Amino acid sequence: MTRLVTEADLPSLLVVNGDDAVTRYLPYPSWRSLEDARNWYARMSALQATGAALQFAVLEKQSGAAIGSCLLFRHDEASARAELGYVLGRAHWGQGYMQEALRALAACAFGELNLRRLEAEVDPRNPRSSLLLERLGFAREGRLRERWLTKGEPADVNVYGLLNREWRRPG
């Protein structure tokens, strides 16, 4: 279950993004304070206001609490493509939450937003993330060497792509 992120989600998202194991392979430092969360929210809100990004909270079904987030960003309207990103709290790994959230995000991207292509970049040391994308139908298209700075160190990324015509729609 997803919805747009609100400021009320920040304490829950601080727990997720403050966990070094969760952000280990991501190109940003772990959050250390609610101020870090507020700064992130301000940046995301500004991007959303321009139409360049959409940031969603991934919600736990029972409690409705934010347990992660996923987003569309780097939206290139002329090319009808965007990149997706995601993060999920460690306590919820392996339970299908992110697969469900990304399936809904892809359905929105290829339906309502009429995108032609989705892209994702994954650190090759994170095989679970790669497997998630492959289960959704993404194809690995190559590797970009030292694409990210992860915790101050250069890191390669595997590039994945999914075309609208390849998307396996639910049902």
Describe the structure.
With 171 residues, the protein is of the alpha+beta class. It has a single domain, classed as Gcn5-related N-acetyltransferase (GNAT) (Aminopeptidase, 3-Layer(aba) Sandwich), CATH 3.40.630.30. The chain has 5 helices and 7 strands. A hairpin with a 6-residue loop joins strand 2 and strand 3. Helix 1 (10-17) crosses helix 3. The longest helix is centred in the N-terminal third of the chain and has 17 residues, at 34-50. It is globular.
Name of the level-1 CATH class: Alpha Beta
Helix content: 25-40%
Count the domains: 1
- Strand segment tally: 7
- Spans of at least 5 consecutive residues whose pLDDT stays below 50 are none
Q: What value does the average pLDDT take?
A: 95
State which percent range the strand residues make up.
25-35%
List keywords for this structure.
seven-stranded mixed sheet; Aminopeptidase; alpha+beta; 171 residues
Topology:
Elements: E1 2-4, H1 10-17, H2 20-23, H3 34-50, E2 54-59, E3 66-76, E4 81-88, H4 97-110, E5 117-122, H5 127-135, E6 139-150, E7 153-163
Parallel strand pairs: 4-5
Antiparallel strand pairs: 1-2, 2-3, 3-4, 5-7, 6-7
Task: Please outline what is shown here.
With 171 residues, this protein is of the alpha+beta class.
